[in-house]
Amino acid sequence: MRKKWNRILPAMLIVSLIIGCQNTKPKEQDLMRIKSAGELKPKKVILLVADSLMSQSIDKGIREHELPALKFLTDHGQYYKDLVSSFPTMSVTIDSSLLTGKYPDVHHVPGLTWYSADSKKIINYGTGPMEMLGHGIHPVLTDALIHLNGSHLNRNLPTIYEELARQGLKSGSINGLVYRGTTDHKLSIPAWIQGPASLPNEIQVKGPDLLSLGSLSNPFEDIKSLPDGLTNRLGLNNDFAIEAVKHLIQDDKLPDFLLVYLPDLDQKLHKKGPADLDGVKKLDQQLDSLLKSFGSPEKALQEAVIIIVGDSGMTPILPAEQNPVIDLPSLFGADQVLRPGEPVTKETEIILAVNETMAYVYSLKADRSLRDHANELKKDPRIDFIAWKEKEWVYAIQGSTAKQIKFKAKGNLIDSYKQTWTVEQDMEVLDLKVNDSAHSLEYDQYPDVLKRLSAALDSHPGEFLVVTAKPGYELADRSSPTHKGGGGHGSIRKMESLVPLIIGGTDQKPEYLRIVDLKGYLLNLLTKKTHNDK
Description:
Layout: H1 5-19, E1 44-50, H2 55-63, H3 68-75, E2 78-84, H4 91-100, H5 104-107, E3 113-116, E4 121-124, H6 129-135, H7 137-152, H8 160-166, E5 171-174, E6 183-188, H9 191-197, E7 202-207, E8 210-212, H10 238-250, E9 257-262, H11 264-272, H12 278-292, H13 297-303, E10 304-310, E11 315-316, E12 325-327, E13 350-355, E14 358-363, H14 370-377, E15 383-390, E16 393-398, E17 404-414, E18 420-425, E19 432-435, E20 440-443, H15 449-457, E21 464-469, E22 474-476, E23 487-488, H16 494-497, E24 498-504, H17 518-527
Parallel strand pairs: 1-9, 1-10, 5-8, 5-9, 12-22
Antiparallel strand pairs: 2-24, 3-4, 6-7, 10-24, 11-23, 13-14, 14-21, 15-16, 15-21, 16-17, 17-18, 19-20
């Protein structure tokens, strides 16, 4: 994760240069418990989540005869190019939606970074080395490794791992940061992290039957040599994940459901931009190797349902000379904007939580309304829109214009997901197409925007705005990572929101093409005694 592991790891590496590296041997031994005891179960399901995989890259690579594995899967399965992601389009929020089947108003993980009014501190799961050092290594790693699954993810909302366990099915996660399940596990923290991060040598967690988290939880230790050293990002990489899956396949130890997180592509696209194909070619080679571990690609689809999904798209960020970075603190004039690492005090007036091309802006000023702050922000022509909530209504105003829209749940307009809404004022702000006679509305530039935007505004307590940047631009606090001339995401436009979904090994189709609907689809695949397999 440059939304996730790719951002936590640089801080770990900085610490290692100071302290020196010592190996801590993981204590996970759970390969014996993942084989399903059932005899008449449906096919095993392998879900591969490829960070920042985009259909435009797949199509281009196939046209240029560069992606044989992805071509095989699209030719022999279902290929959708418009699966709607969660919002903000950052991995922890998306993964939480995928595993729970709900948007953040229900699962309560608002973004890669957000402000907790209860604890009066910024929650940061790892946005970048400098920002992490500013916030402190201990709080960042503690939030990412302990609180994300332990308390931030809604405890009353079951994950797919928890639901499968209740039905007697086995599940596994390889390198997913969101993994809460019913089985006890231990994360083994290397000594060189324990001291500076003030972490214990072991952390008790709950996960699926198989929990593999690089070298922090490696059930393959002493069984198979995997790239999990310091120079290999502690195993939080594609090669580790693919080789681990291949071992399970070849040793006939696949659980009923296995989620595999593949982070490498995201890092390349942040640096080179979404048009770069090198990372997708490497991913294709890894997928080809996985398919052939069954004996052949054809046999793979006979023996398992193999699903590949992107988590978010990416927008090209303009080069430095075109001023692509929106410096948020500078837009608030004399207001006291909280600096990374500073405590919240009575003098604090504005708190920023920047998720690349999207940001939460929290107001602690009793004498200023959210609309007042929105009117300040809209003056910057690089802002796309600013949204906030007043009672049951959501308001959004367009950057650089006075156009406004307001909406609320329930009403006489129905969208393609059978959600009903009341919408007033200027539909152009969120690019809505309304058919008054049919009482219907359609989305274009902002997929499922009414539900996704309102879910973000209901995701956690506080008085705050949601701010998004226009394509080509990104938002920044004082130490935020930026991607000039590269790629970014976080926002709600379709370039960052629509991702590919490839399904091989079954004819069963999802009811709706949204990331929140995949959980129900997967449970349907896994719990039906019979279904149409290819």
